[in-house]
Design goal:
Layout: H1 6-9, E1 37-41, H2 42-48, H3 53-57, E2 96-100, E3 103-104, E4 124-130, H4 135-138, E5 145-151, E6 157-167, E7 174-185, E8 190-201, E9 217-220, E10 233-236, E11 239-241, E12 249-250, E13 258-263, E14 270-274, E15 279-281, E16 284-286, H5 290-293, E17 306-321, E18 324-342, E19 346-352, H6 360-371, E20 382-387, E21 395-416, E22 419-439, H7 444-451, E23 453-455, E24 460-462, H8 490-496, E25 502-518, E26 523-524, E27 527-528, E28 530-545, E29 564-580, E30 583-594, E31 598-612, E32 615-626, H9 630-634, E33 638-647, E34 653-662, E35 671-682, E36 690-706, H10 710-718, H11 723-726, E37 729-731, E38 739-744, E39 747-767, E40 770-787, E41 794-796, E42 808-818, E43 822-831, E44 834-835, E45 841-842, E46 856-857, E47 861-862, E48 865-878, E49 881-890, E50 926-934
Parallel strand pairs: 2-5, 34-38, 45-46
Antiparallel strand pairs: 1-4, 2-3, 4-5, 6-7, 6-50, 7-8, 8-17, 9-10, 11-16, 12-20, 13-14, 15-16, 17-18, 18-21, 19-20, 21-22, 22-25, 23-24, 25-28, 26-27, 28-29, 29-30, 30-31, 31-32, 32-35, 33-34, 35-36, 36-39, 37-38, 39-40, 40-41, 40-42, 42-43, 43-48, 44-47, 48-49, 49-50
Family: Belongs to the TonB-dependent receptor family.
Pfam families: Plug, TonB_dep_Rec_b-barrel
Membrane topology: Multi-pass membrane protein
Length: 935
């Protein structure tokens, strides 16, 4: 990997055969790859028996921050829940171009993310990863690199497999069934291959692992003042929510701290209690009754999602002559999955004193208080509570996606002027149909009406149906008892969730591409010149439908239809010129015209020098682009509910719940990147089978498309007094303090730079009665800096094990294959120690003054981790049928994730895992058993 790609070269025993390597459009032997390419063979993938191919690719050190069904269980309003998308260099998934057999594939979302699980896993021959800019060769989006999945198009025979996986805790069971067949026809001129797979996983709706029970969070230090030298933030266990309890907590006024406990099933009325607050900091508190306050809400984000996938793939080809072959292929994939975001909390909610569900005991206390008021003092007519809504199921997403893809094409060769030219062309039509639906989320007006329950003289009813205003009636309204724990009835839940937000979307992509190449355009003094030229036309569009009910405000969802399309025309040329003395030049240029943003040019210039047989040097400089995707251009307004921390004038913060409104921007331009790559490859003659490489990368993105987050908007307005961000904060009518919405929109204002080193070494040799294979990969990121152009907006995420990318990521493996058919592979994968933030200052006392960037904190270190996996396979023959049994264990030592203090804002933070779930293993030890037979 990141080397000469010997695995690719080994695909053929004929030294004259050539294969297409992702880093170039020029056909040449894999061992002569002009750019760093990581090649993963099907043997490596099958030996580790991943539940899906994305899980394996994500273990590569150069792949960081990828989206998985585990990491995106809270992606409700954007419909991305359940997607597996790749992220090279942690530069963003949209900057990684994913290809299937060198061809584009329709995205599974309007943001263009390609779900890796829509590819036929049983037919994957190898995966090629270009860890650097490749836009001039393959077009837009290849800023961070390219991941190309190559299929076994000539598969012959019948192969069937079954795998079962489960954790050591006997949860998250999953089943994978695959069936593949291929045969020649027409005397070998034609070939057909079909493959189908079925995957089912039973999820775990909560995270009740022991390590997730300590209340480990990051909060604003309640003891901090600007002059006492204490850290402004603290990270520790024993922290929970301070602004709600399961059955409701009075958060202000003379009865602050009174909470409503268990509901008596006979009377339907709640008991009363007094919360021991501990030390309070905004939405948090240390100690006290933190465990009770967070009960039910903490850990309510799904540990793993329910998932069902069906995939069908078919391909047929026919060779009319050695100069002409045609093919057609079709695939259908269906995903259906459900995951849960959180047990939804409600804060600062008003309950009228005549609410029918208030315990008489409490009403009597308030009446006594009001009776003792002096002249001019206002009586209590309502209370303000915070509740995690015990009895109302956690909100989540239930998404169905169908991805259909058709490809037809041809390839061949012809001679002109004594030059042999290879050509290929294809047309692709892809469609993604999504049905995005939220579960257990409520319409705000409906729950308000149900909660405001009163007596009508005989029964408890919704006030809106008995007041003097007929315009606000809600027919069939069922009162809901949110006062206490245990009073919510199924009848009330059925009415509450009678309506729900949903959206149907259609994402389409049409691509036509044609390529010509020759390895002998003409000859120089040093040898033949290779040349490739081609063009591509692409149309991407999105449209959909939402029921008008979505235009009523829901807590989550609030779907809007994203509608729009773009057209792209591209032409490129690439050349490989030998210069003599072991030196080669590789260059490419591409002209791209976007229907919305105009024309842009990308290019690549590289040198390869082999001064001696043992050493090869390479260097590449390129200009790459990423065009805005459909969501960034046309988003009609993705609304999501969350909370932010608003600074208070005298110090401290106030947690404010709000609705974020993110809209698209059709004035966006493509972002550009300058990429420098330098490398050396060592293949010593004295040690056959050994290869080592070191590659330096430096990617500098300008005009990056991004938006300032809601919390950043608050900080820039309140801490730095930047009016343009204050203008994006909208308040409740009649208030100057209660935030209603925060408006956000993507713009070309950011820049991002990442640089570091890739290391790889491998050794393969016969040892004793079998074959030994050793392999090691590592990526060391020196910096990954984002600058949003505003004061305090420079952030280096390298070494940030909280929300960034570890400085050192590695994967090492040792395998031994016995002649008897038994093989074992031992894998060590992990990353090094890191921090919460490179700008944070760790201190316990005598701390400097805190500022919005260089926060002081009591603990800034986050430990890295090493996971060990084992994989065993046994090849045997049974009744003339080839078979392989496999057994694998991931996270052999069942290592718990390192606790990471998330916070200090976000009402969903207590619900999420108390770790960095994108880095650490949250499932624990997992087992997989499987059997594969081939005839």
């Amino acid at each position: 990997m990141a080397q000469e790609a010997p695995a690719a070269a080994a695909e053929s025993d004929d030294d004259e055969d050539t294969i297409l390597i992702t880093g170039s459009r020029i056909l040449r032997d894999g061992s002569e790859a002009p750019t760093p390419v990581s090649v993963i063979s099907s043997a490596e993938i099958n030996a580790e028996a991943p539940a899906n191919i994305a899980d394996f690719v994500n273990t590569l050190p150069s792949v960081n921050g990828s989206q998985t069904p585990i990491s995106n269980s809270g992606s409700l309003s954007n419909g991305q829940s359940g997607i597996s998308a790749l992220n090279l260099r942690s530069l963003g998934q949209a900057r990684t171009l994913v290809l299937l057999d060198g061809q584009r594939s329709v995205g599974s979302t309007s943001s263009g993310l390609v779900d890796i699980n829509t590819f036929p896993q049983a037919l994957i021959e190898r995966v090629e990863v270009v860890t650097g800019g490749a836009s001039s060769v393959y077009g837009s989006d290849a800023v961070a690199g390219v991941v190309n999945f190559i299929l076994k198009k000539d598969f012959t025979g019948v192969e069937a497999s079954y795998e079962y996986g489960v954790t050591t805790y006997s949860d998250v069971p999953n089943h994978l069934v695959q069936l593949t067949g291929g045969t020649d026809f027409a005397d070998g001129r034609g070939h057909i291959v079909v493959s189908g797979e079925y995957f089912h996983q039973t999820g775990e709706p909560r995270n009740d692992r022991d390590w997730n029970q300590s209340g480990y969070f990051q909060i604003e230090n309640p003891a901090y003042t600007p002059t006492n030298g204490l850290p402004a933030r603290i990270v520790q266990s024993g922290i929970g929510s301070s602004n709600f309890t399961p059955g409701g907590l009075i958060v202000s006024g003379p009865f602050q701290g009174t909470y409503f406990g268990t509901t008596d099933l006979g009377t339907g009325l709640a008991s009363l209690g007094q919360l021991n607050y501990g030390q309070v900091s905004g939405q948090w508190m240390i100690g006290g009754d933190y465990e009770y306050a967070s009960l039910g809400h903490a850990g309510s984000n799904s540990l793993a999602n329910d998932e069902e996938r069906i995939g069908i793939f078919g391909r047929a080809s026919y060779e009319f002559s050695p100069a002409l072959e045609i093919f057609a292929q079709a695939s259908y994939n269906r995903f259906e999955g459900e995951s849960f975001y959180q047990q939804t909390p409600t804060t600062n909610y008003t309950i009228q004193m005549d609410n029918a569900f208030l315990p008489p005991e409490f009403v009597a206390m308030v009446d006594a208080y009001n009776a003792g008021l002096g002249p001019g003092e206002d009586p209590i007519t309502s209370i303000t509570i915070g509740t995690s809504n015990a009895g109302v199921s956690a909100a989540g997403g239930s998404n169905t996606r169908e991805v259909t893809r058709f490809v037809a094409g041809a390839k061949g060769f012809f001679g002109v002027g004594g030059v042999d030219v290879d050509w290929d062309l294809y047309f692709q039509h892809g469609e993604t149909s999504t049905d995005e639906m939220l579960v257990n989320t409520w319409q705000v007006a409906r729950i308000d009406a149900m909660t405001d329950a009163v007596y009508d003289g005989a029964n408890i009813v919704c006030r809106v149906n008995v007041d003097a205003d007929p315009s606000n009636d809600l027919p069939g309204c069922i009162p809901i008892n949110r006062i206490g724990v245990g009073g919510v009835t199924q009848e009330a839940l059925d009415f509450l969730f009678e309506v729900f937000p949903s959206r149907q979307q259609e994402i389409k992509q049409d691509v036509f591409a044609i390529n010509f190449s020759t390895n002998d355009l003409f000859s120089t003094w040093a040898g033949p010149v290779s040349f490739a030229i081609g063009g591509e036309y692409r149309e991407d569009s999105v449209d959909g439908y939402v029921d008008p009910i979505n235009f009523e405000r829901f807590l989550y969802g609030n779907y809007r239809v994203t509608t729009g399309g773009v057209k792209v025309k591209e032409a490129y040329a690439e050349a490989l010129v030998p210069l003599g003395l072991g030196l080669e030049f590789n260059g490419a240029v591409r002209l791209t015209d976007y229907s919305l943003s105009g024309t842009v040019t990308t290019w690549k210039a590289g040198l390869i020098w082999q001064p001696i047989d043992d050493i090869r040097l390479r260097g590449t400089l390129s200009r790459d682009i990423r065009a805005p995707n459909l969501l960034e251009l046309f988003d009609a307004g993705t609304a999501r509910t969350n909370s932010v921390n608003v600074p208070l004038p005298g110090g401290g913060v106030r947690a404010e719940q709000f609705v974020q409104n993110l809209t698209g921007n059709t004035m966006l331009d493509p972002e550009t990147a300058e990429t420098l790559g330098l490398g050396v490859i060592f293949t010593p003659d004295f040690l056959p089978g050994f290869t080592a490489s070191v590659d330096y990368f430096d990617i500098d993105i300008t005009g990056a498309i991004s938006f300032v987050s809601a919390q950043q908007t608050i900080d820039l307005c309140f801490d730095l007094n930047q009016q343009e961000f204050c203008d994006n904060i909208n308040y409740v009518p009649g208030s100057t303090t209660d935030i209603d919405t925060i408006d956000l929109s993507p713009v070309n204002f950011s820049s991002q730079t990442t640089r570091g080193f890739d290391f790889e070494a491998s050794y393969r040799a016969p040892v004793g009665p079998g074959m030994l294979t050793l392999r090691g990969l590592a990526t060391y990121t020196i910096e990954n800096v984002t600058d949003n152009g505003f004061e305090g907006g420079i952030d280096d995420s390298a070494g940030v094990n909280w929300s960034g990318i570890p400085s050192l990521v590695y994967r090492v493996s040792a395998g031994y294959a016995f002649e008897s058919g038994f093989s074992v592979i031992l894998v060590g994968r992990g990353f090094g120690d890191g921090v919460y933030d490179n700008d944070f200052i760790e201190c316990a006392s005598g701390c400097p003054a805190d500022d919005p960037v260089a926060h002081t904190i009591n603990e800034n270190d986050i430990d890295g981790i090493l996971y060990v996996d084992t994989n065993f396979t046994y090849d045997f023959t049974l009744a003339g049928v080839e078979a392989q049994a496999l057994f694998s264990v991931k996270n052999v030592f069942d290592r718990d994730p390192v606790l990471v203090g998330n916070g200090p804002s976000g009402n969903n933070t207590p619900a999420y895992p108390q770790t960095s779930r994108g880095l650490y293993d949250t499932l624990g030890r997992t087992f997989r058993l499987g059997l594969n037979v081939r005839y």
